[in-house]
From TrEMBL:
It comes from Amycolatopsis arida. GO terms for cellular component: membrane. One of its GO terms (molecular function) is oxidoreductase activity. Belongs to the VKOR family. The keyword Isomerase does not apply. Its main location: membrane. It is found in: Membrane. The lineage of its organism: Bacteria, Bacillati, Actinomycetota, Actinomycetes, Pseudonocardiales. It holds the Pfam family VKOR. It comes from the Bacteria. This is Vitamin K epoxide reductase family protein. It is a multi-pass membrane protein.
């Protein structure tokens, strides 16, 4: 009995199109994945701090940043009784997966393109709300969360052209 997945000619073509393909639609997909990976990496670092895996989150030497205080606050553990960095990192990875689901470039189904744009817009909206919450509650920002927020904001204009295309 064979264990594992078997390739198909279509899967081999898909592999080649993702790795060697070109065009603006695929370039935007790749950029969307990169921005989601940046957000996920930053938020995973926050999650490691929130779980006690690391003791300190280094910040740029600017007075508005205090990641340790912001990410240790009770607000960071309210939703789902879990560290919000872990949940947010998983959400960013879901955006990365959704961005490439259905294949590379212009051949993706319209529904997947629209869902990707909706998810990216939701991520960006949540990032802005978190930014405001941090300023209102702590008068400080988490630099790692700010990086993730910027990555989420970059993702929205990357997904809109494909969502709006017929």
């Amino acid at each position: 009995m064979r264990i594992g997945r078997r390739s198909t000619p279509e899967a081999a073509r898909l592999s080649m199109r993702f790795r060697a393909g070109g065009g603006p639609a695929l370039a935007r997909q790749r950029a969307t994945v990169v921005s989601a990976l940046v957000a996920s990496a930053a938020l995973s670092t926050v999650g490691c701090y929130q779980l006690g895996l690391i003791r300190h989150l280094p910040d740029p030497p600017l007075p508005m940043f205090d990641s340790d205080t912001v990410d240790a606050s009770g607000e960071a553990y309210v939703v789902g009784r879990t560290p919000d960095g872990i949940a947010a990192a998983a959400s960013a990875m879901a955006t990365a997966a959704l961005a490439v689901w259905g294949g590379p470039g212009v051949r993706r189904p319209k529904l997947l393109r629209v869902l990707t744009a909706i998810k990216a817009t939701g991520d960006a909206t949540g990032a802005v709300l978190l930014f405001v919450e941090q300023l209102q509650t702590h008068r400080k920002l988490c630099s790692w969360c700010t990086l993730a927020s910027l990555a989420h904001l970059v993702t929205v204009p990357l997904t809109l052209p494909e969502a709006l295309r017929d």
